[in-house]
Amino acid sequence: MAKNMQLAALMSAAIILASCGQSAGDRSERDTSQTSMQSALTEDTIRTTMSEGTVEPVQGQPLSTEKHGYGQGVQLDGSNRPLGALEFNAQYGKFSATAINEKDRKITLTFDQGYENGYTSKILDTLKEKKVHAVFFVLQDYAEKNPELVQRMIDEGHTVGNHSVTHRSMPELSPEECRQEVRGLQRYIKENFGYVPTLFRPPMGEFSEQSLAITEECGNKTMLWSFAYADWDVNDQPDPAEAKEKLIGAAHEGAIYLLHSVSETNAKILGDVIDGIRAEGFEFN
Description:
Layout: H1 2-18, H2 27-40, E1 47-49, E2 54-56, E3 63-64, E4 68-69, H3 83-92, E5 97-98, E6 108-113, H4 120-130, E7 134-138, H5 140-145, H6 147-155, E8 159-162, H7 175-193, E9 199-200, E10 206-207, H8 209-217, E11 221-223, E12 227-228, H9 240-249, E13 256-260, H10 264-279
Parallel strand pairs: 5-11, 6-7, 6-13, 7-8, 9-11, 12-13
Antiparallel strand pairs: 1-2, 2-3, 4-10
Helix pairs in contact: 4-10, 7-8, 9-10
């Protein structure tokens, strides 16, 4: 009896993963496919490891629900690339997740848009002047309150990324809640801006194998970062000269910079940082 209950619960989890990307209009078709899936699944194709909290989907490897908090670390290779970012790619690239662009020398600037602090317009002005395209990871609350800024990002050729609906820790959610966080923001941006985000940054950089897999199943690639610094505290902003030196000095092939648009320092130094990094022989996406 217990074994049958475990199998039934696991079949339900597999169906949730398979349902990502389907609209309400597809429910009848999905229900039919779920019935077929349920009849096809057997104890030979689905297994559960209760002691370790891992789930193995159909014909796959175990997906851990263990929560990880990402950080690129301070150790670098000979090309100034953080080893933590390279190790993340090696371990989680199979889930369409990346922390550094290993095949691209160009640098990617990304901004997390938790709330608006009055600096995003200036940042957009600088990016336009310097002819640099960035990625802006927005929350749904941000998009609802600042539609003109989101529209400007799109109009000026930037990438609007998915930072979830409510900024919850993805590995702490059920598979269905995970799906709602990814698909909910994706749906909101599509309905209100005619744009579909395809990049996802998990809130707080927290993830599990399962959350990464669900994000991929929902049509989003996970993008973390290979450089970040303490720029988010509006009451304790980094010194502009020190910050500029740090950002330029961190440049490396395929770098993904995480910056926060609430930072007054970032808004002030962004143009000089772009010029300085270009002077080091790098270009931007």
